[in-house]
Backbone:
């Protein structure tokens, strides 16, 4: 809104200033989509920018003001973009997708915590149990590994989700 008000104060047409602001929303949203942890905001901005264009033109075609349709499109598009992002992230955070990502792209996973203790059970006597907790820097998915080593040999290994 600040960009729109500034452009209006400079003598620019209101409709053009709203269209420029919508374009800025899309460009900034695309840029934020590449920043880890900011994808949701980027998707919301892209949705707001695209839907505000559409809302303005639909409102004008129905005999209303461009500004009213632009505002409604901006609001609805922001919500729709955020919901689309959340749906994509939920799809990426399925157990099989997270295990594949961890195996193939370990640089995307940040170690959050590591717990080492003596292994329990007759088969693991004298062994070491290590739990590692990871979080994906892009999707915030959480995954852990459990490794038991006995005499420097891996006796047990599995993934878990927390």
Residues:
């Amino acid at each position: 809104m600040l960009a729109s008000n500034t452009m209006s104060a400079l003598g620019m047409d209101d409709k053009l200033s709203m269209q420029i602001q919508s374009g800025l929303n899309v460009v900034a949203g695309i840029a934020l989509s590449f920043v880890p942890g900011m994808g949701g905001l980027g998707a919301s901005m892209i949705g707001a920018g695209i839907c505000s264009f559409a809302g303005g033109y639909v409102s004008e075609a129905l005999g209303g003001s461009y500004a009213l349709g632009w505002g409604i499109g901006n609001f609805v598009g922001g919500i729709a973009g955020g919901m689309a992002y959340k749906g994509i992230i939920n799809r990426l955070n399925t157990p099989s997708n997270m295990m594949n990502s961890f195996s193939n792209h370990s640089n995307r996973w940040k170690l959050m915590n590591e717990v080492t203790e003596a292994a329990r059970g007759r088969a693991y006597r004298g062994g070491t149990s290590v739990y590692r907790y990871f979080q994906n820097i892009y999707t915030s998915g959480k995954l852990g590994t459990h490794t038991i080593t006995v005499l420097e040999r891996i006796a047990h290994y599995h993934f878990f989700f927390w």
